[in-house]
Design a protein that fits this description.
By secondary structure, the protein is of the alpha+beta class. It has 3 helices and 6 strands. Strands 3-2-1-4-6-5 form a 6-stranded antiparallel beta sheet.
Length: 141
């Protein structure tokens, strides 16, 4: 199945990558009024050329992570999504450095209030497509 399978495909096949499961979870949350967004690390530490995706939900005035494809014990580990998992990436703003940072998708340029710094969310599975995003690496420090 393609990494960007839509929610109907994920349900039909009963499986998906972390990206597909995260997209499904974000859609499910949104369908019942829970603000949710996809979060992506273009280069993840555990895979030679892999990425990782998960979901953040907005609750009590802040975004917090929930997993769609994490090991059971990972969600109780506060450092599970720590940037060191992204191969101890350089904090460079250069083209290569951005692929090791953590990005959240957003419908609105600049986030919910339009006050956050815009960054195109790099999609490893669809390099020709750019999605509005914000760099949230610092919130995982």
């Amino acid at each position: 199945m393609h990494a960007t399978a839509d929610d109907v495909q994920v349900i039909s096949y009963g499986q998906a990558s972390c990206s597909g499961l995260s997209i499904l979870l974000a859609c499910a949350c949104r369908s019942v009024g829970i603000p949710a967004r996809l979060v992506v690390v273009p280069r993840w530490a555990d895979a030679p050329h892999g990425n990782h995706a998960w979901v953040e939900v907005y609750d009590s005035g802040r975004w917090g992570f929930i997993g769609a494809a994490e090991p059971a014990d990972a969600l109780s580990a506060p450092n599970w999504f720590h940037p060191s998992r992204t191969r101890d990436a350089p904090r460079s703003a250069g083209a290569r450095g951005k692929h090791f940072r953590i990005f959240a998708s957003t419908w609105r340029r600049g986030g919910l209030a339009g006050l956050e710094k815009h960054a195109d969310l790099p999609l490893p599975w669809e390099t020709s497509t750019q999605i509005n995003g914000i760099d949230v690496t610092d919130s995982y420090q």
